[in-house]
Amino acid sequence: MYQHLPTALFSAEQARQLDQTVIRNGIPGIKLMKRAGYAVFQKILSHWPGKPLTVFCGSGNNGGDGYIVAALAAEGRLPVRVIQMSSPGKLGGDARTAFQYARDAGVPMVPFSDCLDLSAGVVVDAMLGTGFSGEVREPFAQAIRLINHSGLPVVAVDIPSGLSANTGAANGPAVEANLTVTFIALKQGLFTGRGPALGGELVYSDLRVSEQILAAEPHTAYRLELDPLRSTLLAPRRRDAHKGAFGHVLIIGGDRGFGGAASMAAEAALRVGAGLVSVATQPEHVTALLARRPELMVRAVTSGQQLRPLLARATVLVAGPGLGRSPWSEQLLQQVLDTALPVVLDADALNILSEARLTSGHLPSNWIITPHPGEAARLLGITVEAVEADRFAVVRALQQTFQCAVVLKGAGSLVCLDPGLPVAVCTGGNPGMASGGMGDVLSGIIGGLIAQGLSPDMALPLAVCLHTEAADRAAVEGERGMLATDLLGPLRHLVNP
Which of 163, 192, 222 finishes a domain? Predict the structure, then answer.
């Protein structure tokens, strides 16, 4: 879905600034608009040759791109019509020039009506564009509902209407595109939240803007890519290596009835190459964990006091998988909070932390927290809806609140390592990951990488990429019914490139 794309991602404001920079460097706005329209039209021809087009045009530059698409279709003798979402009198600048171009090409144009017939062809969404923010108002909301209910292929120009370029959220109806052709600046909202679902196949065109101009513009986020991380961080092992050189992960979790979570985290740590992995868990889980994976060292722990000697032998701690929220859970987590070791906190460890029942200030900088939206909401004292309304702001708020590295899980997981750095976006993964245990596997991967000598800041981006790529490989057999343990086989191959 995201092949051959730049890594830098931009906010809507940065995208507008980049457009202005390009224009100041000698490319007129109308020329950029014609290039954008041509890029969209060529993709339509390659995907749906000969199909009639219905182009929904707004009043801004996004609408101008749509008028160019319509003009090119008319010039190519392709059946086409424009649905005008606002009066042509509201058009200005380059968008008005594009409208005149389409009118001169003989494109039929009609005002939008909710009685519009959408029964054939391809729909082109050129209504709201990157500058959209807030709530979708009428008649755009009705137009979006009509497009989505048509069953026709939909091509979005630059960004689906109704999707926020900044946040990846949709406040009201949003166009569900099969294909999005985006230009010059990749918009960060396309890659997280609702963005991946609404954008469909994503195609990028730089509109022949020089790489120097693109590289010089500041960006707020960037796409993670697995291969550069692997080549940099997973060096071949020395021939005289021994298990002691690759660290000791201690998994702390598995309250009564939840031993499976600790087991999955532990096995994931083993599969990415940790030298030793121990599990501190309730006595009732010891036999089952050893039977499933005899390479583990499993210790029955009934109190925080019993955990202390295990902490002394560990390189890194993973606390939370199946931890529960009992007095036993709190005792163990309090011991974890008092350690100076690198720590990965997940699941119920985050829930206990959010309840402020344990003594801790902010977490040390060598720690990592991995909340999903529900856990993030509890940690910040907000709603899940507020989390999803601006995932970029939330991951930064978590980092600033707890002063440690953060991954906000979900569609387009976000990684924030430092307030002064761009947010990293993981664009891998699939809906098959919406099942229990996936987070446990991720926490084990992170712990296993830190055990081998990677800093938390290095381990976290690599782990997130390994996790989603393993899931994508497992999904070859089908997304529905995919299990967290299905990722363990691909993981071994991925860490041995």
Answer: 222
